[in-house]
Specification:
334 residues, TIM Barrel, alpha/beta, 12-stranded mixed sheet
Length: 334
């Protein structure tokens, strides 16, 4: 956020700093270390790592999205851009044709910039980058173009929380609102269910960096739309596999009790989880009640908690400190 308003990236675009960071990010792809896996492949030369993506952005869809947390979706919708591919391998991914099969189309930085501007023209409250981890350099290049041509919406970075701190520092002063997951408290579970290596340490380092950049406070405009801040999502899994109580305790103790947390009950079996003896069912009411108790026990003060209705397609988010405010957080990522 600038002294005169939003978005944060505008002065960086005017000074040439945004273009410089885009180039730094692109150079990181020569022996790729854009995510914590640090595959080391030369993506600029066509080599593919775990994300199976080249250097240019690949998109599955872009549109106005009404089912994020209330200060993200607002009344007109979030300008959501869904990126193809993923650095994870979640067994229960709800968007597996996009994340695992890479359905979508490759676009130039110029076209991605046009999409951002078109979403702004359609009334979007923000530009919401969903699972852009492996495409950060391309996003920076597109954002530089869009900002020069009049983009003035807050930038939301919506991710799985498995991020490189080095790359997040390229986003310092660029991203207005961070919307990461804190998926797991146990590395063995993270590896088994999502194929992540060293997830817990990487996730916690990333959350610390995001918190350093944007702080505790979720800054809202006069219409209640987020302009700056951090919202951490955590989805409750069957049989306590997500380590919910430990995740929530860590957020409160190591970041702040004032960090906004979105606690989600929407898990449903998908992809390779449908026949799994544990993952092949929704969470139970008692499992979610235990998660709600853990939220309170951790001393968390702000956020949203989905109401439990049994049917994952009928979950609504209840703001902790405003019982009349409800919305259905997006089901974009596993």
């Amino acid at each position: 956020m600038t002294e005169t308003g939003w978005p944060s990236y505008s002065p960086l675009a005017r000074s040439g700093e945004l273009a410089r960071r885009a180039q730094l990010g692109r150079e990181m792809m020569r022996a790729c270390r854009v995510c914590p896996r640090e595959c080391g492949v030369d993506r600029l030369a066509g080599e593919l790592g775990v994300c199976r993506q080249g250097p240019e952005a690949r998109l599955s869809s872009w549109n106005l999205h009404a089912w994020e947390e209330p200060p993200i979706s607002g009344t007109r919708g979030s300008g959501t851009i869904f990126f193809s591919g993923c650095v994870g391998r979640c067994l229960f991914c709800q968007n597996w044709p996009i994340s695992q099969l890479g359905h979508g189309q490759t676009v130039s930085a110029e076209r991605l910039a046009e999409m951002m501007l078109e979403l702004q023209g359609r009334g979007a409250h923000n530009i919401n980058l969903v699972t852009a981890t492996h495409f950060v350099p391309a996003v920076l290049a597109a954002l530089d173009i869009a900002a020069q041509e009049g983009l003035c919406l807050p930038l939301v970075y919506n991710c799985g929380g498995y991020e490189s701190v080095e790359v997040l520092r390229l986003l310092d002063g660029v991203v207005d609102v961070y919307l990461p997951d804190a998926k797991y408290a146990d590395d063995a579970v993270a590896r088994r269910l999502s194929g992540f290596t060293g997830y817990v340490a990487a996730n916690r380092a990333a959350l610390r960096e995001m918190h350093r950049q944007v702080g505790d406070e979720l800054v809202l405009d006069e219409d209640g739309i987020a302009r700056r801040g951090l919202i951490v999502r955590h989805m409750v899994l069957p049989a306590g596999l997500a380590g919910t109580a430990e995740v929530l305790r860590w957020i409160a103790a190591e970041l702040s009790p004032g960090v906004h947390v979105s606690l989600m009950a929407q898990y449903c079996p998908a992809y390779r989880a449908e026949d799994d003896p544990v993952l092949g069912r929704p969470i139970t009411e008692n499992e979610y009640l235990a998660a709600l108790d853990a939220f309170d026990a951790a001393g968390l003060e702000q956020g949203w908690r989905q109401e439990y209705h049994g049917d994952p397609e009928d979950m609504f988010g209840l703001e902790v400190n405003s019982p009349s405010s409800c919305a259905k957080p997006g089901q974009n990522r596993a």
